[in-house]
């Protein structure tokens, strides 16, 4: 397999990103049929690292961060045929390299990846909370 290269930035083709998400189990967990939402996700994420095999997008790590205190990694995906060769770890590593030295990384693991993050040194947080979009604020 040829050498994987990494890029920083969100100047990405919408179709490439949708196709990549479809090529991973994350595809069913993201609104890939709503192009406007995916376009907003690409545009407004402020730290995106991608992995490429030549012209083929093979991985993405998309985060929202203040570059000082916290970064929320919303999407981490590696094309199924490229998994388990260190690309996911490298995407996280390169994301961290862009964050300030005191910036904490936060994410919600997809069910298929719950055993992945502890191996990389992540700690499970006992008091993480979410409020889904359709849930009322009481
Ligand atoms: C989870 C994911 C990003 C990992 O990417 P990857 O490039 O395959 O991972 P890496 O090669 O960096 O793996 C690093 C280590 O974790 C292990 N690992 C990889 N995927 C794993 C998984 N799903 N569960 C448990 N361990 C996993 C690898 O074996 C490797 O260990 P090793 O170095 O001892 O062999 C990728 O499998 C993926 O895109 N999955 C589908 C989408 C998804 O669930 N994303 C996470 C959303 S939170």
Task: Please outline what is shown here.
The protein has 138 residues and is an alpha+beta fold. It is built from four helices and five strands. The chain has a single domain, classed as 3-Layer(aba) Sandwich (Aminopeptidase), CATH 3.40.630.30.
Keywords:
single chain, 138 residues, alpha+beta, Aminopeptidase, five-stranded mixed β-sheet, 5 strands, 25% helix, 24% strand, globular, binds coenzyme A
Structure, described:
- It is built from four helices and five strands, in the order βααβββαβα.
- It has 138 residues and is α+β, with helices and mostly antiparallel strands.
- It has a single domain (5-119), classed as Aminopeptidase (3-Layer(aba) Sandwich), CATH 3.40.630.
- Strands 1-2-3-4-5 form a five-stranded mixed beta sheet.
- The N and C termini lie far apart (53 Å).
- The site of coenzyme A has 21 residues, from β4, α3 and α4.
**How many H/I helical runs?**
4
As a percent range, the share of strand residues is: 15-25%
Unreliable segments (pLDDT under 50, ≥5 consecutive)? none
Cofactors, ions, other ligands: coenzyme A
Strand order of the largest sheet: 1-2-3-4-5
Distance between the termini: 53 Å
Task: Give the topology string: H per helix, E per strand.
Answer: EHHEEEHEH
Q: What's the name of the CATH homologous superfamily?
A: Gcn5-related N-acetyltransferase (GNAT)
The CATH class label is: Alpha Beta
Amount of helix: 25-40%
Structurally, the number of domains stands at 1
């Amino acid at each position: 397999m040829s050498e994987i290269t990494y890029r920083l930035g969100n100047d990405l083709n919408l179709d490439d990103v949708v196709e990549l998400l479809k090529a991973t189990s994350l595809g069913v967990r993201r609104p890939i049929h709503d192009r406007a939402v995916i376009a907003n996700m690409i545009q407004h994420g402020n730290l995106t690292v991608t992995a490429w095999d030549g012209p083929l997008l093979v991985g993405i790590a998309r985060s929202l961060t203040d570059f000082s205190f916290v970064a929320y990694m919303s999407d981490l995906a590696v094309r199924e045929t490229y998994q388990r060769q260190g690309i996911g770890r490298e995407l996280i590593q390169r994301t961290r390299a862009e964050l300030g030295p005191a910036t904490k990384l936060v994410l919600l693991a997809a069910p298929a990846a719950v055993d992945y993050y502890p191996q990389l040194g992540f700690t499970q947080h006992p008091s993480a909370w979410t409020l889904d979009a359709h849930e009322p604020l009481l």
